[in-house]
Design brief:
Elements: E1 7-11, H1 15-26, E2 31-35, H2 41-47, E3 52-56, H3 67-79, E4 84-89, H4 94-102, E5 107-110, H5 115-130, H6 148-160, E6 167-170, H7 177-186, E7 195-199, H8 205-213, E8 214-215, E9 227-228, H9 230-233, E10 238-242, H10 249-261, E11 263-264, E12 273-274, E13 278-283, H11 287-290, H12 298-304, E14 307-310, H13 318-335, E15 342-343, H14 345-352, H15 359-373, E16 378-379, H16 394-399, H17 403-417, H18 422-429, H19 433-442
Helix pairs in contact: 13-15, 17-18, 18-19
The structure holds adenosine-5'-triphosphate.
Length: about 450
């Protein structure tokens, strides 16, 4: 938020004060609306997404205790808990100032004021809003979060990013594993070298080798020219292997050999190529599931897991939900030119009541949709609809014994995993695209 984009509402029963403040602020900010009547606050706030309210504390009351100001302050905060309110009073009553700050006012100004003081107060609040709490790292995409779990991630990340240690990132789908992998690279000594991501879980056995290790012209029927593998492309930089938990044992053995020898041999070649990569792997399996010897080699786990990061599910990080929700609402309000939308208390309550099986990715989608659908400056509970595409939480899936429900849940899970890509999902489910579409219709997905 910048000062020139800020919308301010001023409520004061003194016409002279309104005129003076309007004149002072009009040329500096985007919009100034003034009213003598505090009863109009609700309507005005519904019509315009204000960023700031300047509110008089003393309306026509017989006794100037400022109570009326506190009453209207509370009303404003009920309508939009995020909005900043600066209170004005003619009485330098420090107790009242403290009380109003406790009740949620952002600042307090005493009449008669100096224009500079008001401008400074407005400017300071706008600046404060501009600073999204985020990881102070040089990464293009900020990682938002201030939960203890994310604070730990940030501390560890800063510590290990500059080393060449292999890293394993654990967490459910959509928790931000990709983002963390990217931030590690961006804060490493390899930041100016390539960052190469491969979703190894989605590769078939033949593709696995050609994609990772490359091939020579003529190595197989379709190999019409030499092609570099991803290991080679990542030389000097970072290789990020996503969904590592899903690769079959045979491919795990191939991977282990490459990591041990630090060289790859492209298909159809006799020569091995030395590789210098920093390896980051990610999986949505828990470390206990990953360590099941029937599905994953222990020696490979040790090799890829010098340091591990666990990103908790969003439902376990309530304060992050708040921050992320604000961040995405601001982001999409700007993207879709919706002014600065705010979240009504009912909207926030509904948001907090949802378990978000799809984690931050799901949150991002539902908020984008809510912003697009929003008709008023304050997002209403009805603007929030949860996507049927998200799979229910595992505990719910396991309770399910009805075959149709199991099929429906599996389809959800696979489509979610493939980011809505029908071709990939059909392939993974072992059915044709047409068969998948038939089932989508059947289950009204
Ligand atoms: N802490 C965060 N701050 C900001 N954006 C986030 C955060 N966590 C996740 N996101 C966003 O949520 C989406 C999903 O994140 P990401 O792809 O990193 O998750 P993931 O764990 O790698 O998912 P998957 O396991 O499905 O690959 C992305 O758009 C990402 O930018």
């Amino acid at each position: 938020m910048h000062l020139q984009n800020t919308k301010i509402l001023i409520i004061d029963d003194d016409e002279d004060v309104l005129t003076a403040l309007r004149l002072l602020l009009k040329s500096k900010v985007k919009e100034v609306v003034v009213s003598k009547n505090p009863n109009r606050i609700q309507n005005l706030m519904e019509a315009t997404a204000f960023d700031l309210v300047i509110l008089d504390m003393n309306f026509n009351s017989l006794v100037n205790t400022g109570n009326e100001g506190i009453f209207w302050l509370n009303r404003i905060k009920e309508i939009n808990p995020e909005i900043d309110v600066i209170l004005i009073t003619a009485y330098g009553d420090i107790d009242l100032a403290i009380r109003s700050l406790k009740e949620g006012a952002s600042d307090f100004i005493i009449k008669p004021w100096q224009n500079e003081k008001i401008l400074n107060a407005v400017q300071a609040l706008v600046e404060k809003k501009k600073k999204q709490p985020k990881l102070n790292l040089n990464s293009e995409n900020p990682i938002i979060g201030d939960s203890p779990a994310m604070e730990n991630v940030f501390v560890k990340l800063k510590k290990v990013a500059p080393t060449d240690a292999n890293i394993l990132i654990l967490g459910e789908n959509g928790t931000g594993k990709d983002l963390v992998a990217r931030a590690i690279h961006d804060n490493s000594l390899r930041k100016n070298k390539p960052f190469v991501k491969v979703d190894v879980g989605a590769l078939t056995e033949t593709l696995f080798e050609s994609e990772l290790f490359g091939y020579k012209k003529g190595a197989f029927t379709d190999a019409r020219a030499d092609r570099k593998g991803r290991f080679e492309s990542a030389h000097g930089g970072t290789l990020f292997l996503d969904e590592i938990g899903n690769i079959p044992l045979r491919q795990q053995a191939r991977l282990l050999t490459v990591l041990q020898n630090r060289q790859v041999t492209p298909l159809g070649s006799n020569e091995s190529i030395p590789i210098d990569i920093r390896l980051i792997c990610a999986t949505n399996l828990s470390i206990a599931d990953l360590a099941d010897e029937n599905t994953f080699r222990k020696d490979l786990i040790y090799r890829i897991n010098t340091i591990d990061f666990t990103i908790p599910a969003l439902r376990e990080r309530e304060s992050d939900l708040n921050l992320l929700a604000n961040y995405f609402v601001d982001f999409y309000s700007q993207k879709y030119s919706k002014g600065s939308l705010s979240m009504s208390p009912e909207f926030l309550k509904k948001l907090k009541g949802h378990p978000f099986p799809g984690n931050v990715r799901e949150l991002q989608y539902v908020l984008e949709r809510a912003v697009i659908m929003a008709e008023k400056a304050s997002l209403a509970a009805d603007d929030l609809t949860f996507s049927a595409i998200e799979k229910p939480l595992k505990a719910d899936v396991q309770k399910e014994t009805n075959l149709d429900a199991i099929e429906r849940n599996t389809i959800y899970a696979v489509i979610e995993k493939n980011n809505g890509n029908i071709t990939k999902s059909a392939k993974e489910l072992g059915i044709t695209r047409a068969a998948l579409y038939r089932r989508l219709n059947k289950y009204e997905l």
